[in-house]
Design brief:
single chain; two-stranded antiparallel ribbon; Rossmann fold; alpha/beta; Dehydroquinate synthase-like, alpha domain
């Protein structure tokens, strides 16, 4: 057997995990370089009251709280947060919330170290200007934003774009399962399925490697066991912690191996219809997984091992998981989809890296087929047929 090409594994931040982790936050922050604290949180975290616990753990240190609107990052939301960071001067940036809040905080910590806004840095068009220390406290279990060097942001036309760089990786991560226990069912399901999609695409994609695959395998086994439990009982702290660990491990995997066609579909659904990311990529994986497995079964050997099944059964297992956790109930509002729009957006510049990393090569006819399949899956879920 020929030796594998060389590959690199990125740095993983210092991480504190457990129901008591928040109690250590003040001392941990004191070890970072900054005199002022800027806490960037989403409205959902504010509504649940969790942000009060975070602020209490940080006092009496000087704190500026910046609350961002619920929803995925936009140029304006990132630029507004960056202005707050810039005004604070010698700041440590602490992101609290779901993946969107963390992505806003991470990008604000980088952009706020320079002048101007985030737009010049989309799609790596220019080197990032610097950074302030970053702390990530996720309250959802799925995006893995706390351990990735990629951030999502919508451009001026509303298309989902991204920034990337080592500067965007947090210095410290706090995984507090009691934070995740405050999340409603739809958020729990959408983000939990996102972790599954991350893990399976990372360990099957063109850039897969054995080290990152180990993280992805463990993430898959945790999700398949614990997501159905938290979907029924959101207060199950043991399973909430397991799901936070799953999201973290899947985040490590995609940071090193990337994602695939389910994410190019999901980003198309986000750009065209502004659907939540986790729901979008779950629908994308439902549309593409059987086709992927049929065409490249060997790429799914690691996933099959993690799920204790045969490769050909993986699509059935994922379909059953979606049904068990209530994906249909978590969809939100119905939308009228166009396969043409989805297919065209799947291969746009911002989505091309995901498409090219897919386990199975996708030609133009197959891209159109997958877009049509996505529309069918969406409407089937809405009408109880998928």
């Amino acid at each position: 057997m020929a030796p594998s090409p060389s590959y690199e594994i990125g740095r993983v931040p210092r991480t504190v995990i457990g129901a008591g982790a928040l109690g250590d936050l003040g001392a941990l922050v004191d070890g970072l370089d900054g005199a002022n604290l800027v806490v960037i949180a989403d409205q959902g975290v504010q509504a649940t009251g969790y942000i009060t616990r975070v602020l209490a753990a940080l006092r009496p240190r000087p704190i500026t709280l910046h609350v961002v609107a619920w929803g995925e990052p936009t140029l304006d939301s990132v630029d507004g947060a960056a202005e707050v960071v810039r005004a604070a001067g010698d700041a440590i940036v602490i992101g609290v919330g779901g993946g969107s809040a963390l992505d806003i905080a991470k990008q604000a910590a980088v952009v706020g170290a320079g002048v101007g806004g985030v737009e010049p840095y989309l799609l790596c068009a220019n080197p990032l200007p610097g950074r302030r220390p970053i702390v990530a406290i996720p309250t959802t279990s799925g995006t893995g934003a706390e351990v990735t060097r990629t951030c999502i942001v919508a451009d001026r036309s509303g298309r989902k774009s991204w920034t990337w760089g080592d500067e965007l990786l947090p210095d410290l991560v706090v995984l507090d399962p009691t934070a995740a226990a405050t999340m409603p069912h739809a958020v729990t399901v959408g983000t939990g399925l996102d972790a599954f999609v991350h893990a399976i695409e990372a360990c099957s994609g063109q850039r897969r490697n054995s080290v990152a695959a180990a993280s992805a395998q463990r993430a898959l086994s945790l999700v398949i066991t614990h997501l159905p439990r938290v979907a029924v009982d959101g207060g199950d702290i043991g399973s909430r912690q397991a799901m936070q660990e799953a999201a973290y491990l899947a985040g490590v995997a995609i940071d090193n191996c990337g994602t695939g066609v389910a994410h190019s579909i999901g980003h198309a659904l986000g750009s065209q219809y502004h659907l939540p990311h986790g729901i979008s990529v779950a629908v994308g994986l439902r549309a593409a997984l059987e086709w992927n497995v049929d065409g490249e079964p060997a790429a799914y050997a690691d996933a099959a091992t993690a799920l204790s099944t045969d490769v050909e059964q993986i699509p059935t297992i994922f379909e059953a998981l979606c049904a068990d956790v209530g994906l249909r109930r978590a969809l939100g509002v119905d939308v009228s989809m166009s396969a043409d729009d989805i297919a065209n957006t799947m291969c746009a510049a911002e989505n091309r890296p995901m498409l090219d990393n897919n386990a199975r090569a996708v030609n133009d006819d197959e891209r159109r087929m997958l877009a049509e399949r996505t529309v069918q899956i969406w409407h089937g879920l809405w009408h109880g047929r998928a």
